[in-house]
Amino acid sequence: MYEWNEMVQLMIDWVERHLTANPSLLNMSKHLGYSPYYCSRQFNSLTGMTLRDYIWMRKVSRAALELRDTDGRVLDIAMKYGFSSQEAFTRAFVKAFGVTPSAYRKAPRPIPLAKRVEVFSPYHYFMKERDQMSQGQLQQVEIRKEFIQAHKFIGVWDISSQSYMQFWENGHDCDEICGTLESMSNLVLPGHLEQTAGWFYENGQKGYFYGIPVSLDYDGKIPAGMECREFPESEYLIFHYPPFDYLKENGAVMRIVEEAAWNFDPKSMGYEWDEDIKQDYQQHFPEGYGYAVLRPVKKLD
């Protein structure tokens, strides 16, 4: 049942490693040991796009980041990602983002970059992993305190969602939102993951939000469909699990971290939950950071 999810993820990983080498379906299928037909069919089934379209959009998106972050010539960047000429690259760029490469370089703006596809979502295999893995095999959740400076947060808040999967199932365009936020990755507050999420509270209701934290003095453009909110400085209790194997352990790790976060009594550390800051952060990057829930606290009187 899960064989092709794993295989398509391997296909995606292979494409990412070969974006500047003109990856082809034939070469990839040879590398993975499956026929081009099956690779193409299963990729389309799980991602909703053809492999060719995915490669094209990832090439243009990676080129956009190089335009933004490097001084390389437009022609050199175009050739690096397999475009036959600067004119061909310009046509592709305008088709994808509605602006020329030169205009974008002069005045970078939020654009809907194509994100690296993940066919496994944070909650996707929760039930399966819970049955396969007992809590006793996992490490202990680390609980520590950290100060986070006052900042702004750009993103989408949805009071009708309470989880990552529910948020995307509620009509939010994952590719557009994540791609647009990736184009703003250079603005992320130092020390934070590029894209993060969490829960917020309004009138006794719990909702879910997704976006990026930026500096308090940010006064740039806010992408359509998003808003910018300001949060004061605060100390946070961080319930953190170190890097882990996503495919095997994700559901179990998320479960024990969230159980620890929602059931912990901060009085044992001389704190209480700061209910004036009506949001909790969720940080999820299995291989590089791990998983964490961050809850604001204040010292007991």
TrEMBL record:
All copies of domain HTH araC/xylS-type, residue ranges: 9-107
The entry's keywords: DNA-binding, Transcription, Transcription regulation
Protein name listed in UniProt: AraC family transcriptional regulator
InterPro entries associated with the record: Homeodomain-like_sf (IPR009057), HTH_AraC (IPR018060), HTH_AraC-typ_CS (IPR018062), MarA-like (IPR050959), Tscrpt_reg_AraC-type_HTH (IPR020449)
Entry annotated with the keyword Nucleotide-binding: no
SMART domains membership: HTH_ARAC
PROSITE patterns reported in the protein's UniProt record: HTH_ARAC_FAMILY_1, HTH_ARAC_FAMILY_2
GO molecular function: DNA-binding transcription factor activity; sequence-specific DNA binding
The keyword Transcription regulation belongs to this UniProt entry's keyword annotation: yes
